[in-house]
Amino acid sequence: MPEVLEEQRARLRAEELHAASVGQINVRKFEFKSVDEVHAMTVSDDAAGIVKVTNVLHDWKRLATCVLPGYTICAIHDRDVPVAMADMTAEAFVRLMEQCSAARPITVSFAKPRAPMPMPGFARKRPCKATHIKKTDTQVNFLMSYCASHETRYSEPRSKHLWQAMRDKFGELTLDPVTQMPILMSETAIFNWLKGRYAAKKIAAVDIAAARAARPGRVPKAPSKAAAKVAKPRASAQKKATQKAKAAMLDDESSDESSESSDDSSDDSSDERPTTAAGKAPRKAVAKAPRKAAAKAPKKPSKPPVKARKAAQRGRAAEYDEESSESSESDSGMEESA
């Protein structure tokens, strides 16, 4: 039993220490030493008697970096003496704070507003859609003017240099008069803005070029001969080459027919030349064909079939032998009758 009681007491002490640490984190203390600091802050109260900060002037950087709009006043210590907060209103708070000075500082404790309840499963998930803050006219005007002046002498500015120039001009705590948001943008936001600006300029340049090309009444420029040769497809060149090869083959066949007819009308001495003439005929045909066709043709033109020519020559030789044998028989018969 004593061990169980010790464990419970230790757990209660740990919980109390954790609650105290959380309370210290959520509470900010500020020591007012002049009336000007009090007037730099605007407060208001509600029906529940809660005094709340509504506005803080950013000219007072010490106060503006510690106290933010939305904080509530939870405790006041005048010379380390706590002040009752039961019937405290905004007017009573201002009257009390106007008595502060360097010799009589008054410490005020401000409680931060509670954070909103996280979404279900926030520990393992992230918000589906990120928040995008719209840029104010002051920010856009500064970015555009800086880029225009920079691009007249150099190339497009970098986001780091643009952020430094904006911080030097406006500072870190200056608020926009319309939106009451800080004018100084983050370097990432400036980088994204520059990226979108570059993409918009590129799209505009492409649209202008397309519009100029599609103007009515504009005659397209004829391509040069070299470009036309390069642009011609290879299929047409191969087609022309095959046509020229077929024409060369037809010339070979016609030359073979003319040579065969001349062989029939020649005498016995010309009968011994058919093989040489047949062998020389394709060479003459190739010589007659244009050199360009031979160079552009994908394959050499096929020669006429040699076996068919030799068979024709053998048939003509057999016919000649029969005629000669018949003529010899007729001559011998005439001699016998005589």
Describe it.
Helix content is 57%, strand content 9%. The chain is built from 13 helices and six strands. A four-stranded antiparallel sheet has the order 1-6-4-5. The chain has a two-stranded antiparallel sheet with strand order 2-3. A hairpin with a 2-residue loop joins strand 4 (72-78) and strand 5.
* Strand content bin: 5-15%
Q: What is the β-strand count? A: 6
Q: What is the domain tally?
A: 3
How many helical elements? 13
Largest beta sheet: strand ordering: 1-6-4-5
- Cα(first) to Cα(last) distance is 168 Å
Characterize the main sheet. Answer: 4 strands, antiparallel
Fourth-tier CATH superfamily name of the largest domain:
PDZ domain
Task: Tell me the helix content.
Answer: 55-70%
Provide the residue-averaged pLDDT: 75
CATH architecture assignment name of the largest domain? Roll
The dominant shape is elongated
Kindly report the CATH topology of the largest domain. Answer: Pdz3 Domain
